[in-house]
C-alpha cells in the first residue's frame, strides 16, 4: 500500500475497525472504573483505595503506617500485621510499612522477636506481651509490655 | 505540594536527556515523539549517574544531583543546538500511508488520556508492588543517598526482591529528591501516564500511523487498568521496549536508530528481569530475521554491559540472586495447567479483544512479512514467561497475580507487528 494507490477494501476497513475497537475499550474502561466503587470524583486517601470494590487491608496498612510514623519514636522496631492471619501473616503488610515509616525499623511479623510496636490492621491484637497504646485510623498501635 | 514536586521530577527528565535530539533520526520525529525519546534518555542518564555516584561511595543529595544532571542537561542543550534545526527537516518527516482524517483518532486519543488520568488519580489502577517494594526501596535509597546494599541484604527485606534491577527505585528516589520530605506515591502512580503516552507518541512519531497509535493507546490503557500496572515497573518497561521495537521496525536503516534501540534495551534490562529476557528475545529475533551480526552486536553491547554491571554488583554485595532462576527445577507436569491459566488471564476480561484486534489487522495486511521480527519477539517472550511459570509445581496464584502485566510485552510486540504490516515503507 503506497501513497496515491487506490485504497483497497481492506485498507478502507482498517481505520473504522480500529475506531470501533477503541470505543469498546473506552466503554470497558468506564464500566470497570464504575465497578470499582465510589466516591468517583474525590481524591483518594491512598493509591490503593479503589483497586477493588472491597477495600484491601493494604490500604489500611498505608493509613495506619502513615499515622504511626508520627507517633512512634525514631529507631523503634515495629511490624504491621492483620491479627486474624496468624501465624501465616501477609508479608506485604509489613513491607508496606517499610516505605512509610523511614525513621523506624520495620521488621517481619514474628512476635517472638518482640518488636517494640505492633500495628494491628482492623482487628484487636490479643497477645500477652503487648498492650494497646493508641487507636488510630486504619487500626491499633500496640507497644511491648516492659 | 510534595505530589507536584514529585511529579515535576519526571517532567525534568526530558531536559536531562535532550542531547538525544542530536541524532538525525530523533530530529525528524514530531515533537511529542522527540520528547519521549528525551524522556527515555533522561531516565537512563539520571539513574546511571545515581548508580555511579553510589558505586564510588559518593552519597547523592539534591545539590549534587542538580549540579551533575544540570551539567548534563546544559551539554545536551548545546549539543542539540549545534545540530541543524528540526524545522528545516520538516520535509523529511516520515509520511503517513495516505492522507487520513486526523480528527477521530486524535479525539479518541484524548479520551484515553483522560480515562487513564482518571483511573490513576482515583487509585483504580495502582500496582500493589509500588507499596510492597519499589517505593520502599526508593525511600531507603533516598535516605541513604545511595543504592543501600546494607538495607537490601537484611533478612527482613528479602521478600522485597533485593536483586531486582535498580532503575525504578532510583527513578523514584530522584522524584523523592525533589519532593524532599515525603515520597509522593501519587506522583509515582501518575508517572504511568507519561510512560503510556510516551510509548504511544513514539509509535505515532515513527510510523506516522494515527489510527494505529490510537489502537496502541486504547489497548495499553485498558490492559494497564486490568493488570493494575500503575506505579509498578511495567509502564516504564513497556516504554523502553516500545523505543527498541520502534527503532528496529520503523526507523530501520536510519542513522542513529541503533542508538535508540540500544537505549531502549538498556532501560528495559535495568527495569525488570523480564526486560533482560526481552533484550535476549530482540537479539535472537534480529539474528534470525535480519541476520545482521554487526548491527545486532551494536544494539546489544550497551545493555549487556549495563545488566552485567548490575549482576556483578548483586554478586559482590551478596544479594539474593534470581538471575540463576532458569537453572532451577522445571515442573513439566504443570505445563498444561499453566497454559490454561495463562490463556484465561490473557483474555483481559474482554474475550481476548486486546489480542484479537492486532491479529485481525495482521491478517488483513498485505505486507505481513514485515511483522516477522516483532512476532518472533512476541513468541519468545511469551514462551519465556511460560517457562518461568513452570518452575513452580502449581503456579496458578503467581500467574493470576502477574500474567496481565507480564503479557504486556508480547502484546506490545504483536501490536507493533500489526502496525508494521501496514507501514507504507518497506521494513
Supply Rg of chain B: 21 Å
| Strand coverage percent of chain A | 15-25%
Rounded mean pLDDT of chain B is 92
Assign an overall shape of chain A: elongated
How many beta strands in the DSSP annotation of chain B?
Answer: 0
Give the mean pLDDT of chain A.
Answer: 93
Q: Which short descriptors sum up this protein?
A:
heterodimer, A: 146 residues, 36% helix, elongated, disordered N terminus, B: 427 residues, mainly alpha, 69% helix, 0% strand
Brief overview:
The complex is a heterodimer of chains A (146) and B (427). Chain A is α/β, with parallel strands linked by helices and 146 residues long. Chain A is 36% helix and 17% strand.
Describe this structure in words.
The complex is a heterodimer of chains A (146) and B (427). With 146 residues, chain A is α/β, with parallel strands linked by helices. Chain A has three helices and five strands. Chain A has helices at 9-35, 57-71, 91-100, and strands at residues 77-81, 105-106, 117-121, 130-136, 139-144. A five-stranded mixed sheet of chain A has the order 2-1-3-5-4. In chain A, helix 2 (57-71) crosses helix 3 (91-100). The radius of gyration of chain A is 24 Å and the shape is elongated. Mean pLDDT of chain A is 93; it is low at 1-6. Chain B is mainly α and 427 residues long. Chain B has helices spanning 2-16, 24-27, 31-55, 62-81, 103-121, 128-144, 149-153, 167-179, 185-207, 210-227, 234-249, 257-269, 273-290, 293-316, 335-345, 353-364, 372-389, 396-406, 408-420. Chain B is globular. At the A-B interface, helix 1, helix 2 and helix 3 of A face helix 5, helix 6, helix 9, helix 10 and helix 16 of B.
SSE layout and pairing:
The complex is a heterodimer of chains A (146) and B (427).
Chain A: H1 9-35, H2 57-71, E1 77-81, H3 91-100, E2 105-106, E3 117-121, E4 130-136, E5 139-144
Parallel strand pairs in A: 1-2, 1-3
Antiparallel strand pairs in A: 3-5, 4-5
Chain B: H1 2-16, H2 24-27, H3 31-55, H4 62-81, H5 103-121, H6 128-144, H7 149-153, H8 167-179, H9 185-207, H10 210-227, H11 234-249, H12 257-269, H13 273-290, H14 293-316, H15 335-345, H16 353-364, H17 372-389, H18 396-406, H19 408-420
Helix pairs in contact in B: 1-3, 1-8, 1-9, 3-8, 3-9, 3-12, 5-9, 5-10, 6-8, 9-10, 9-11, 10-18, 10-19, 11-12, 11-19, 12-13, 12-14, 13-14, 13-17, 15-18, 16-19, 17-19
Amino acid at each position: 500500500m503506497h501513497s496515491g494507490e487506490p485504497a483497497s477494501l481492506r485498507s478502507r476497513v482498517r481505520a473504522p475497525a480500529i475506531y470501533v475497537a477503541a470505543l469498546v475499550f473506552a466503554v470497558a474502561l468506564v464500566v470497570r472504573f464504575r465497578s470499582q466503587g465510589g466516591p468517583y470524583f474525590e481524591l483518594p486517601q491512598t493509591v490503593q483505595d479503589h483497586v477493588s470494590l472491597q477495600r484491601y487491608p493494604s490500604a489500611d496498612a498505608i493509613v495506619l503506617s502513615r499515622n504511626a510514623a508520627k507517633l512512634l519514636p525514631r529507631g523503634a522496631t515495629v511490624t504491621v500485621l492483620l491479627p486474624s492471619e496468624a501465624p501465616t501473616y501477609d508479608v506485604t503488610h509489613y513491607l508496606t510499612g517499610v516505605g512509610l515509616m523511614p525513621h523506624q525499623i520495620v521488621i517481619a511479623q514474628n512476635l517472638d522477636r518482640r518488636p517494640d510496636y505492633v500495628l494491628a490492621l482492623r482487628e484487636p491484637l490479643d497477645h500477652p506481651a503487648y498492650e494497646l497504646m493508641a487507636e488510630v485510623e486504619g487500626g491499633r498501635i500496640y507497644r511491648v509490655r516492659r | 505540594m510534595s505530589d507536584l514536586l514529585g511529579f515535576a521530577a519526571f517532567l525534568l527528565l526530558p531536559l536531562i536527556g535532550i542531547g538525544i535530539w542530536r541524532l538525525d533520526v530523533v530530529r525528524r520525529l514530531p515533537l511529542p515523539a522527540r520528547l519521549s525519546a528525551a524522556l527515555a534518555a533522561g531516565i537512563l542518564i539520571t539513574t546511571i549517574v545515581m548508580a555511579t555516584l553510589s558505586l564510588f561511595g559518593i552519597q547523592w543529595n539534591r545539590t549534587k544531583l542538580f549540579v551533575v544532571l544540570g551539567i548534563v542537561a546544559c551539554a545536551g542543550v548545546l549539543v542539540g543546538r549545534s545540530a541543524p534545526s528540526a524545522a528545516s527537516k520538516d520535509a523529511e518527516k516520515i509520511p503517513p500511508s495516505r492522507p487520513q482524517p486526523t480528527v477521530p483518532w486524535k479525539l479518541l486519543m484524548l479520551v484515553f488520556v483522560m480515562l487513564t488520568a482518571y483511573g490513576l488519580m482515583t487509585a483504580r489502577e495502582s500496582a500493589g508492588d509500588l507499596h510492597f517494594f519499589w517505593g520502599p526501596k526508593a525511600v531507603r535509597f533516598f535516605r541513604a543517598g545511595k543504592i543501600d546494599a546494607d538495607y537490601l541484604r537484611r533478612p527482613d527485606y528479602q521478600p522485597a526482591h533485593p536483586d531486582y534491577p535498580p532503575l525504578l527505585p532510583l527513578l523514584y528516589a530522584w522524584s523523592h529528591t525533589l519532593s524532599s520530605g515525603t515520597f509522593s506515591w501519587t506522583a509515582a502512580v501518575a508517572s504511568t501516564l507519561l510512560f503510556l503516552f510516551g510509548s504511544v507518541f513514539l509509535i505515532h512519531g515513527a510510523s506516522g500511523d494515527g489510527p494505529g497509535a490510537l489502537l496502541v493507546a486504547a489497548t495499553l490503557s485498558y490492559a494497564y487498568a486490568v493488570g493494575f500496572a500503575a506505579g509498578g515497573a511495567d509502564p516504564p518497561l513497556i516504554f523502553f521496549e516500545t523505543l527498541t521495537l520502534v527503532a528496529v521496525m520503523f526507523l530501520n536503516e536510519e542513522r542513529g536508530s541503533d542508538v535508540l534501540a540500544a537505549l531502549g534495551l538498556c532501560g528495559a534490562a535495568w527495569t525488570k528481569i523480564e526486560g533482560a529476557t526481552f533484550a535476549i528475545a530482540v537479539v535472537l529475533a534480529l539474528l534470525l530475521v535480519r541476520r545482521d551480526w554487526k548491527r545486532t552486536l551494536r544494539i546489544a553491547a550497551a545493555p549487556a554491559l549495563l545488566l552485567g554491571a548490575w549482576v556483578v554488583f548483586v554478586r559482590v554485595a551478596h544479594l539474593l540472586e534470581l538471575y540463576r532462576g532458569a537453572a532451577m527445577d522445571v515442573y513439566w507436569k504443570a505445563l498444561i495447567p499453566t497454559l490454561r491459566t495463562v490463556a484465561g488471564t490473557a483474555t483481559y476480561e474482554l474475550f481476548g479483544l486486546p489480542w484479537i484486534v492486532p491479529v485481525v489487522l495482521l491478517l488483513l495486511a498485505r505486507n505481513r512479512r514485515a511483522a516477522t521480527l516483532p512476532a518472533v519477539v512476541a513468541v519468545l517472550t511469551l514462551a519465556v514467561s511460560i517457562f518461568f511459570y513452570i518452575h513452580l509445581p502449581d503456579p496458578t496464584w503467581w500467574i493470576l497475580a502477574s500474567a496481565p502485566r507480564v503479557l504486556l510485552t508480547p502484546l506490545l510486540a504483536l501490536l507493533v507487528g500489526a502496525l508494521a504490516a501496514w507501514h507504507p515503507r518497506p521494513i
